[in-house]
């Protein structure tokens, strides 16, 4: 394949990763803090590159936010979501070097923790008053734990075997 064909292939795959992440995001939206967007963006960084993966993260969160059934994200919250998505992409790209189950599980944990911290800070700055701070923090911890635990399982039980399959298929 020449460079033009490779670029076209990567653009097509970027679109597919974005569409998959968005579709999975909407499919699991009714289940609080169980999601596959992070895993999909991680995989885009793993398979494509950090550059095309970042395009996928930005497209994913812009579309998901604009057409979100729960309403449009505040710009500060949207920015933190995009940053979290970019972190997933970069971790996926770095994980290519290791191809190890522990690295995938650790990545799922760290990415999700980072994402939850930055989005909770953004949410706090946008939505919370002094009167609701304790409730916001307590609720955030519970949802953060659900998110982290679910992503640990997703990264270990789904993503790790999936990346091995993609490598066999030479995707």
Automatic annotation (TrEMBL):
<feature type="transmembrane region" description="Helical">
    <location>
        <begin position="41"/>
        <end position="64"/>
    </location>
</feature>
<feature type="transmembrane region" description="Helical">
    <location>
        <begin position="6"/>
        <end position="29"/>
    </location>
</feature>
<dbReference type="InterPro" id="IPR024529">
    <property type="entry name" value="ECF_trnsprt_substrate-spec"/>
</dbReference>
<keyword id="KW-1133">Transmembrane helix</keyword>
<keyword id="KW-0472">Membrane</keyword>
<feature type="transmembrane region" description="Helical">
    <location>
        <begin position="133"/>
        <end position="160"/>
    </location>
</feature>
<feature type="transmembrane region" description="Helical">
    <location>
        <begin position="101"/>
        <end position="127"/>
    </location>
</feature>
<keyword id="KW-0812">Transmembrane</keyword>
<feature type="transmembrane region" description="Helical">
    <location>
        <begin position="76"/>
        <end position="94"/>
    </location>
</feature>
<dbReference type="Pfam" id="PF12822">
    <property type="entry name" value="ECF_trnsprt"/>
</dbReference>
<protein>
    <recommendedName>
        <fullName>ECF transporter S component</fullName>
    </recommendedName>
</protein>
